[in-house]
UniProtKB/TrEMBL annotation:
Organism field: Bauldia litoralis
UniProt xrefs under PANTHER family: CHAPERONE SURA
Keywords: Isomerase, Rotamase, Signal
Alphabetized Pfam families for the sequence: SurA_N
Gene Ontology molecular-function annotations: peptidyl-prolyl cis-trans isomerase activity
Chain intervals for the UniProt region annotation (Disordered): 235-260
Record's keyword annotation contains Isomerase: yes
Gene3D superfamilies noted in UniProt: Porin chaperone SurA, peptide-binding domain (1.10.4030.10)
Signal peptide: 1-35
Record InterPro entries: OMP_Chaperone_SurA, SurA_N, Trigger_fact/SurA_dom_sf
Domain annotation SurA N-terminal: ranges: 69-141
Coiled-coil parts of chain: none
Protein name, entry field: Peptidyl-prolyl cis-trans isomerase SurA
Amino acid sequence: MEQTGMKRMRYLLSLTSAALMAVAMLAMPAVDAIAASSIRIKVDDQPITSYDITQRTTLLKLTGGGGEKAAIEELINETIQFIEAAKIGVRVPESRVDFAIQDIATRTKMSPDKLKKELAGQGVNIETLRRRIKAQMTWQQLVELRIRMEGASVKGSDVTAALFEDSEGGDVKTTEYILQQIIFVVPSGSSGGLENQRRREAEAFRSRFPGCDGSVAMAKQLKGVVVKNLGRRTTEELNGPDGKEIKATPAGKTTRPTKTDSGIELVAVCKTRTLETNAAAVAETENKLMFEQNKELGKEYMAELRKKAVIEYR
C-alpha cells in the first residue's frame, strides 16, 4: 500500500507541475544542511545555494523531470520570475498553495502531514514543493497580466479553421456557471485577529447562504462585506485550484473561504447549465488556440526577462 501511494503521489506531482506552469526557489533547510550549503549562483544578487539545487534535483527525480542541469535552469527562471512579480506587485496568497497541497494529498489518499513525511522520506522538504507550486502560480499570473496588457486575442478565421480540422460531426458539451463573489474585507496591515474573525464570519455566512438572490440582503446585515456578480464562466475558463473548487461546488452553494488581497473571499455558484451547441465548440476551440498562443507569449516573456537579468555562476 505504501509503494502504491508513493507511485500515485509521484504521478500527481508530475501532473501538478505540468498544469501550473513554471517553478520556484527552495525552502528552509535543516540546520546541518544550512551549514553545508554554499552559494552556487546569483541572479540579480539573489542567491541559489547548493542546498536549493540538491533539493530541486531530488524533486525532479520524483516527477521524472530531469537532473541537476534542469534543476539549475528551473531555479534561475523561478528567481527571475519572483523578482519580476515583486517589481509589479503580483502576489500569490499562501492559502492558494495550501489548497494545492491539500489537493495533492487528497488525490494520493494521504493527509497533508502524511504527504510531508513521505516527501521527507525521499529527501525532499515540503517547503521545496510549496515554493515550486507558488512560483508556478506566480508565473501564470504574470503571463496573464502581460496578455491583458498586449490585448492578445485569437482570430475568428483561426477558430473556424481549427473547427473544420477537428470536427467529427458532433456538438461539444460544456458547463456554464453563473458566479457571485462575496468579499469579507480585511484592510491592509490588519492584525491576524481581525483576519481570523472575518474568516469565521465567512464560514458562518457560507453555512447559512440563502442563494445568490438573497446574498446581498444577508451581506447588508454585516459590516465590510461586498457582493459582486461575476457573470458567466464556462468549464474551460475555470482553471487551476480555484477553478477546480468552483466546478466541484453545487449550484446554490459557495466555495470554502479563501484569503485574497482584499480579505476573505467566497465564490457562490448561482446556477449551472449544460451547453451542447456549436457555440460551445467555438468556445472550446478558441480556448485551446489561446492556450497555445499564451505558451508562446510566455516563452518570449521569459526570454526577455533572462536577457535583462545578471546571472553569476560560482
